[in-house]
Write a structure and sequence with these properties.
With 112 residues, this protein is mostly helical. It contains 9 helices and no strands.
Length: 112
Amino acid sequence: MTGPAIPETPLFDRQGSIRGYKLNKMAMSLGRPENREAFKADEDAFLASYGLSDEEKAAVKARDWHGMVALGGNLFFILKIAAIDPAVMTEIGAAQAQMEHGDFLKQRLGKV
C-alpha cells in the first residue's frame, strides 16, 4: 500500500534499502568509537573501505543529508555521521525539506 507522494521526498523502500546498503553499513559502523576515530583521521580512506560510490562519498563529505537519503541512506543511520561533526538537528531537517534553516525554523517550528 502506498500513500500520496510528497514532492522531492525519496521513498525509503526495499529498492532504496538495497541501493543504500553500503552507505547505511558505513554509517552504522560509526556507533563504534574506533570507527569514529578512523573516520575523523582519514575520511576518504574510511569511505573507500566500505566501497562507497563516488556519488555517495561526495554526499557524505559535503554532509548533504538530502543527497544521502536520495542515494538510499536511512536517515536514522546517516544521523550517526552528524555525531562526528556535530550537526544541528534543525539544519538537517531543513536540508531534508530543502529549505533555508531560518525558513524551516519559522515555518515548521514557529520560531522567529
